Amino acid sequence: xxxxxxxxxxxxxxAASFTPAHPDLPHAAGAPAQVGSDNTVEALARIVFLxxxxxxxxxxxxxxxxxxxxxxxxxxxxxxxxxxxxxxxLGDYMSPAQRWVVTPNADTIYGAGFCDLRSEAVVVQTxxxxxxxxxxxxxxxxxxxxxxxxxxxxxGTPGGKYLLVGPTWEASGPEDSVPExxxxxxxxxxxVGAVLPRSFATQDADGKARARAVLxxxxxxxxxxxxxxxxTSRTTRMRRTRSTRRASLPR
Length: 251
Description:
Strand order of the largest sheet: 3-4-10-6-7
Strand content: 15-25%
Number of strands: 11
Oligomer: single chain
Number of helices: 4
Order of helices and strands: HHHEEEEEEEEEEHE
Distance between the termini: 57 Å
């Protein structure tokens, strides 16, 4: 483009000097925004990337819904996985061959499941028969991986059924009412989230058996599949599948 003889600016630069950048944006008070330098734009891009990464990563992991359709247990032979709104679990420690969890615990057996609360609420089952002093936990996170609810032995969580709902869910009764048969209502600020159970396991066979026995009482399943009582059922039981060192692609 040619330059203005009087100002030495290109046509695009001259136009930009007379065109305020979004002066009508909310909270702008009519003042035009300043066009940032390359460094400013790059810094902002880094902030946006770091902020958005957890959400993008969470949505990426929901591919297990399709891979695990109709079954629960392990995905690729090494990761706990399940269909949408269900949990699946390992039968042993997480394999060192996996690369999805950066720093997994070395003394707990893992379960995992991702929920989509747009279609319906889900039931989160906590264990009712736990050996005295045994450590277990259920970490419930939103789509940005913020820990919203932390259930478990350290929190003194009682055994039973909890209703996990999304931000738009409305109770049929008073706002703070708990449906019959449930211990409490847990709300997520996002419609998509994750339910991540863990159970402590010593390195001997008896210790791992105790861990699996507790983990098999923990689970998530759709509200439409709920049953009366708080005992474990087929929908909440986690498949006892051992992790393997080598991952195999699904056929």
